[in-house]
Structure formats: structure tokens, C-alpha cells
Amino acid sequence: MASAQQATAQLLQRGAAEIEMTTNGMGAAVLALLVAGGLAAAAAARPSHAGAIIRLPTSGGDRPWECCDFVVRDPDFRPPRWQCNDVSAECPAACSRCEAAPGDGGGYVCRDWVVSLLEPPVCTPRPWDCCDAAVCTRAYIPDCRCADEVEACPSNCSECELAGADPPRYRCLDLFHGYPGPKCTPFLDSMGN
Question: At what angle do helices 2-21 and 26-45 cross, to 10 degrees?
């Protein structure tokens, strides 16, 4: 491509010299033809990307794991890159870098990095099905509590407190590592409409 640009520059220099030599305006037409030819040569030397398929990172269809409770995001890599640090009895078949888990507990950890725009799904379910009043840390993957007062705590909530006496209302105090999930009340209903 550099040679096409050099050829274009040489053609422009010759055209400018011919314009200076001609007095009847024919030089301008010659210069226009030379410039058009030079641009066509430069365009022909450039590779074409018209039929190329651009693949963006997806929700992780190529992950070596189905879900992950202890996920780590690489802060220096864009788009986001994730690594799962869950310890399991054996690494998944799709894992290319399987290492023994640190410590005496045994097990293995898949050290593959996965590029995905979305955080991998968690394995442990949230202690609530939905939450209108989530209180979360500002971490990239936050720790959240749901401050909703409900008639009864969900069955998977391990720590439940009485929040109001008349009528009795309860609040789940469990801390969840991950996003709080969907809202219980649709947006318009929460606005009083």
C-alpha cells in the first residue's frame, strides 16, 4: 500500500509541473485524470472488508463452566474478561488450563479466561426472587441485601428478621454476592399509576 501512495505522490508532482508548462487550461484536465488514476490505484491496493464477519463477545457460549460463584474480572482487559475460581472435584472437559486448588481442601480450578460483555451467571440462587429496595456495594460485582418488607421470607433465606408488627412484615438479611435481580413491582406501579 505504501508503493501505491508513493506512485500517487509522483503523479501529482508531474501533473503540477504540466499545469505550469501549459497556458491553455489543458493542464487542469490532465491533473484531474492523474489524480483520479492515482486514487484508483491506492484503492485497489487496500484490502476489502466488505464480506468480513465481525464477531462481538457474547454472553459466553464458549465458557468452560455453566455458572460461577467466585468470578474474577480482569480490570485491564477490554472487553471484559472473566475467570472462575470455583473449586470442583474435576475440571470441565472444555477447560484448557486446569490446576489443583490452592490449600489442603483438594479439588481443581479452571484457570481459563473468557471474554464476554456479560458477567457469567452465578450457581448459588439469590435469597429472594425479586427485590424493589436493593442495597448494594459499589463494587463491579456488588454484595447486595434486599430491604423489602414482605409477608414471609423466601425459603432459601437463612437469616430473616421481623421488620414490622402490625401486620407482621419480614426482611431477609442475607448478603448476596452479585446483582440483586429483577424488581418485584413494575415501574409504573411503583410511581403510583
Answer: 180
